Each structure stands twice: as C-alpha cells, then as structure tokens.
Automatic annotation (TrEMBL), chain A:
One protein family per Pfam: Fer2_2
Top-rank taxon, per record: Bacteria
Entry keywords, A to Z: 2Fe-2S, Iron, Iron-sulfur, Metal-binding, Oxidoreductase
Keyword Metal-binding part of the UniProt annotation: yes
Recorded coiled-coil stretches: none
Protein name according to UniProt: (2Fe-2S)-binding protein
Domain 2Fe-2S ferredoxin-type: start-end pairs: 1-78
Stored InterPro entries: 2Fe-2S-bd, 2Fe-2S-bd_dom_sf, 2Fe-2S_ferredoxin-like_sf, 2Fe-2S_ferredoxin-type, 2Fe2S_fd_BS, Beta-grasp_dom_sf, Diverse_Oxidoreductases
From TrEMBL, chain B:
InterPro entries: CO_DH_flav_C, CO_DH_flav_C_dom_sf, Diverse_Substr_Oxidored, FAD-bd_PCMH, FAD-bd_PCMH-like_sf, FAD-bd_PCMH_sub1, FAD-bd_PCMH_sub2, Mopterin_DH_FAD-bd
Record protein name field: FAD binding domain-containing protein
Taxonomy, superkingdom: Bacteria
Occurrences of domain FAD-binding PCMH-type (ranges): 1-169
Keywords: FAD, Flavoprotein, Oxidoreductase
Source organism: Solirubrobacter deserti
Gene3D superfamilies named in the record: 3.30.465.10, CO dehydrogenase flavoprotein, C-terminal domain, Uridine Diphospho-n-acetylenolpyruvylglucosamine Reductase, domain 2
Length: 153, 275
C-alpha cells in the first residue's frame, strides 16, 4: 500500500508498505528514522515509544495501515533544531542517565509525555509513567535524577 | 494482505460480513504481537480505529454502556467515579503506552482468563453487546466467554461494546498478584462488587475462564461484615477457583493468594459501605 502520514511535522508518502508491518518498521526501515529502537517487538520494553496523534504508544504495536492520515512524532522530532538538544535530552546527558543509550530515545519520549501532562511529578508518578520503559544498564537512579532535573528546568 | 478501514459502524459490519476471515484490530496490543512474531497471517486486517461509534460510552438506564474502542486510559479518567472496580483493574494493565492503546473490546475479544478488565465486568454482571448486519444482541459476559481465549462471537459479528450495571452505593474492589507493580500478567486476581443485598465476585487467572464464586457471593450477601465472615468468604472463593501450575505460579499458591485477596477486598468494600 501507499502510506500517507505526517512525521515530525513533514508530510510523508511511502510506497510498498505491507499493511501488517509495524509503525516501528516503517520508521526505521522505510523512513530512515532509526531513533526509535527495536528491542522486543512486543510492547514490553518501551524503546520504540512515539506519539501517534499526541498519544504515547509503542510503535511496534501499531500496524502501518493504522497510521494512514495520522500524525507521528518520534524522538527525532523533539529537539528544536538539528544542532540542539531538547531540555529533556540535555538533562539525561547531564545526569549520566545514558549508558549504552539503547533505551534512551523511548525514555525521552515517555518523559516528554509525562512532563506535558504533569510538569512537577512526584517520584511515584515518575516511576508509574516510566514503568513501561526498560533499561538494562543504569539501574534507573540516574534516569530518575534526569527526569527530576528536567521537571525543574 | 488486505487492509479494511471502515469509516463507521455500518461499514464495519458490512466489511465483517463480506470478509469473515479478516482479523479485527483496535489497539493492536494483542494482535500486533502475533503479527510481529509471524504467529498469525490473517488474510485481512479489519481496522476499527476509525469507527467513531466504538470510542464512545454513555449512561443508559441502570448502568453504563461502554464502546469496544474505549481505552484503559479513558476508562480510568472518564469512568473511575462510576465504575471504580473497572478503573482499578485498568490501572494495573501493562504500562501507560499499553493503556493508551489497549481497549476493553480487545480484552473481551482476546478472552484470556488473565484479562484484567474481565473480573470487574463479571462481578458487576455485565453483558457483551455483539452485532452483525443481521442485528445486535446482548450476551451475559459469563456466557460470552466459553474457554481459554474462546468466545461465542459469530464469524460475521463484531463486539460493539459492553453494558455494565451501576447500582446505588456499590463498593467495588480489584486486586491482582504479580511480580511487579506494572507490566505483569496476573498470577491471579479478584474483583468484588458489593451493593444492597447483592455481592458479585470474579476470580481471574485461576481457571480456563474468569470464574464467579457463587457460593461466596450468596454467603457474603447475608453475612454480617466481620473478620470471621471475611475469612470464611476467602475460603469459599479459594474453593471456587480451578487453578493450574504454570510458570507464573503453582495451583496451591494461587488458591492461597485468592483467599487472601478475597478476604482483603471484601473487608475494604464493607468498610467503604459502612463509612
Ligand atoms: C506489554 C503488554 C502488556 C500487557 N499487559 C496486560 C495486562 O496487564 N492486563 C491485560 O489484561 N492485558 C494486558 N495486555 C494485553 C492487551 O493489552 C489487552 O488484552 C488489551 O485489552 C487488548 O486490546 P487491543 O485494543 O489492543 O486489542 P487488539 O490487539 O486490537 O485485539 C485483541 C483481540 O480482540 C479482537 N477484537 C478487538 N476489537 C474487536 C471488536 N470490536 N470486535 C471483535 N473483535 C475485536 C481482535 O481481533 C483480537 O482477537 C498486555 C499486552 C502487552 C503487549
Ligand atoms: S520494541 Fe516496542 S516495546 Fe519493545
Ligand atoms: S542505557 Fe543501556 S539500556 Fe538503558
């Protein structure tokens, strides 16, 4: 099928999409947007988190055909310009919340969603909001630090 | 693969009738896992996310009718006051990403004995509304689900929604055992729904389908709200379960945990009603 949608503010038209493939596959393999990571393809790890029409979702669980006519925002679409970091990204770097970095894009998008809904979350609220994002490296403490400092910024 | 994307309910029913081998999809949180791992290759997908009728809920005489496409996030935000048990269960589902996308209709469609929306619906005595181009019917939920991942949905039918009775001053509770506070399939779960002269219950993830503990319900409906009665209620609930040993837990553990969950939840419900 031909898929027409808006990704990070740009209208996109992609031919030859298989309807049953995931949005994650479309982003990474057909749109050269490898920021969203593929770690489990079953909704468990959150590394593929994106916004679909302003709703935080796992892109591995959205069928390509379901994105027709919709708006997608990925981690690549959060920073104001090519050379700048979004304040949440900067907070992750500063706090040492990035080790191998594989989980980071998903955590950035999930944190972005949390702070948009709740600008000063409690620790319990941060944990709840990030419960669907797994990190095998950091032990999460630095991630919590990063979210707290992004919330204060 | 064909991809069918009806813009409304009538078109959806027509598409279903014309393509009985098409697999319905809303949130995709069950369907896409199957597709990603090539466990299923349906001839067609029937995407219901563009059907506005499915994403609505409305008050009806004696209760609330919830469209199949209402997500857990919305159940929590919009129906928490009227259906607290269902909202509690919804809060335990997956993660924010899963709750934003997964729907009550998808949970009914999957008909897993571990489906978390199901125990509160059983306890309330809900009925599932299914429809086809031939018409609509409402089926009591315990007749809709007939086995592990099996239900009576006809091949030309779709789930339109679910009707949940709301009773005056009802107290509802839901509790679930798992290894984490998020992202877990229930080891076992329990829902209770207490109103004047009526107690509804349901055991999750400890049998081929969710199970109502009828003896426990009859006992609690006339018992005085005391510790001894709560313990007896717990024993009756445990006796009604039919758990198995599996990777998530043993049958014996599930039975014990259910007696504890049942005792606690009925105590909380009684406290709410006395307050
Ligand atoms: C990481 C992860 C965590 C999860 N955690 C939980 C959890 O804690 N508790 C829990 O209960 N579940 C959990 N699930 C399972 C799943 O999220 C739920 O079952 C959810 O309710 C499915 O809804 P959906 O809209 O995504 O369904 P879909 O995947 O779109 O569909 C599910 C099934 O229902 C059918 N269907 C959907 N809508 C209709 C309709 N209107 N008419 C007829 N058939 C229909 C589909 O054909 C399919 O068979 C989890 C899943 C994942 C991936
Ligand atoms: S790749 Fe989507 S949640 Fe893991
Ligand atoms: S930094 Fe390596 S997985 Fe999180």
């Amino acid at each position: 099928m031909r898929l027409t949608c808006v990704v990070n503010g740009e209208p996109r038209e992609i031919d030859g999409v298989w309807e049953g493939e995931s949005l994650l596959y479309v982003l990474r393999e057909r749109m050269q947007l490898p920021g969203s990571k593929n770690a489990c393809e079953q909704g468990e790890c959150g590394s593929c988190s994106v916004y679909l029409d302003d709703v935080l979702v796992c892109s591995c669980l959205v069928a390509a055909g379901q994105v027709e006519g919709r708006t997608v925002t990925t981690v690549e679409g959060l920073a104001p310009t090519e050379d700048e970091l979004h304040p949440i990204q900067a907070a992750f770097v500063e706090a040492g919340a990035v080790q191998c970095g594989f989980c980071t894009p998903g955590l950035i998008v999930a944190t972005h969603d949390l702070l948009a809904r709740n600008p000063s979350p409690s620790d319990a609220e941060i944990r709840e909001a990030l419960a669907g994002n797994l990190c095998r490296c950091t032990g999460y403490e630095k991630i919590l630090d990063a979210v707290r400092s992004a919330a204060e910024a | 693969m064909e991809f069918l994307q009806p813009p409304g309910w009538r078109e959806a029913l027509e598409a279903r009738a014309a393509h009985p081998d098409a697999l319905p999809i809303w949130g995709g949180t069950d369907v896409m896992v199957e597709l990603n791992f090539a466990r299923t290759r349906p001839a067609a997908l029937l995407d219901l996310t563009h059907v506005p009728e499915l994403s609505r809920w409305e008050s009806e005489d004696g209760g609330v009718r919830i469209g199949a496409g209402v997500t857990y996030t919305r159940l929590i935000a919009e129906l928490g006051d009227r259906l607290p048990g269902l909202a509690m269960a919804s809060r335990t589902v997956g993660s924010p990403q899963i709750r934003n996308r997964g729907t009550i209709g998808g949970n009914l469609g999957s008909s897993s004995p571990a489906g978390d929306a199901l125990p509160p619906l059983y306890a309330a005595g809900a009925s599932v509304e299914v429809a086809s181009v031939r018409g609509a019917r409402r089926i009591p939920i315990d007749e809709f689900i007939v086995g592990p991942k099996r239900n009576v949905l006809g091949e030309d039918e779709l789930i339109a929604g679910v009707f949940v009775p709301v009773r005056d001053d009802a107290a509802q509770q839901f509790a679930k055992v798992g290894t984490r506070n998020a992202m877990v399939i229930a080891v076992c779960s329990f829902a209770v729904d207490v109103s004047e002269g009526r107690v509804g219950t349901c055991i999750g993830s400890a049998g081929p389908t969710p199970i109502r503990a009828r003896e426990a319900e009859a006992f609690a409906a006339s018992a005085a709200p005391e510790d001894a009665a709560a313990r007896e209620f717990g024993e009756l609930v445990a006796a009604a379960a039919s758990p198995i040993d599996d990777v998530r837990g043993t049958a014996a553990y599930r039975r014990h945990a259910l007696s504890v969950l049942a005792r606690r939840t009925i105590t909380w419900a009684w406290e709410t009603r006395c307050a």
